[in-house]
Protein: Methyltransferase domain-containing protein
Organism: Sporomusa malonica
Amino acid sequence: MTHEILGDFKAYSLAGTDQEVRFITSVLNLKSGESILDLYCGYGRHAIELAKQGFAVTGLDATQDFLDIAAQKAQKAMVNITFQQQDMRELNYNQQFEAVINMFAAFGYFTDDENANIIKLISTALKPRGLFLIDLLNRDWMVRNNLNRYWRHPSGEYVLSYKVQLENGIATMKRQLINQVTGTKIQYDFVLRAYSLPEMANIFSNSGLSIIETYGGFDGRPYSAETPRMIILAKKDT
Ligand SMILES: C[S@@+](CC[C@H](N)C(=O)[O-])C[C@H]1O[C@@H](n2cnc3c(N)ncnc32)[C@H](O)[C@@H]1O
């Protein structure tokens, strides 16, 4: 690992959450006090910043350890967030949120039917004309660009290197985590159903959601084959 690459990782980390939260608030354009469900909130990095800005935030994740860290950070930041431990397949809100966000490739973990049903549950959770922002990896870009990435883990900072293989829409990411302090390496595969934009559009329309914008990055650039991310903003029809 060269010094130059580590420099890039640092820049990436600094840009990270701040830029993402600026992007989220600008595209959702909500009023203070309106409600946001952060679906798969992890350790709360978006939820906490959004709560600081006066939104009524609920953070949901399946991993209690992540939620515990998130709750501690929220307390330190002196913000009120409702945290809920739940599998997203069991989401059971009814017309409760102005917006639902699903950040950092936190979708595509299950079968096609289960994934599609999650989008239905998200649509049900939204108030009429509510917004859904989903941030996915651009699968084709990922396959062409097997890069080292910086990844923030609750227990410290790791460098993540990966190689992506795509077969029948299933992306297999061969990951290697390198702990910067101890030098320890952990290798594992991460498998995700990576959807194309037409596939997502079809799932959305079956759930009463219409795509209103697509983006290729948190700087707001338009989505294309050349962008690392596929970020979709959709609106509930009624
Ligand atoms: C890629 S992380 C993204 C976290 C967060 N959105 C962020 O940007 O930091 C994926 C998250 O999904 C959660 N997760 C994995 N499987 C889940 C499930 N079946 N139900 C709910 N959350 C789950 C993990 O605990 C993890 O926090």
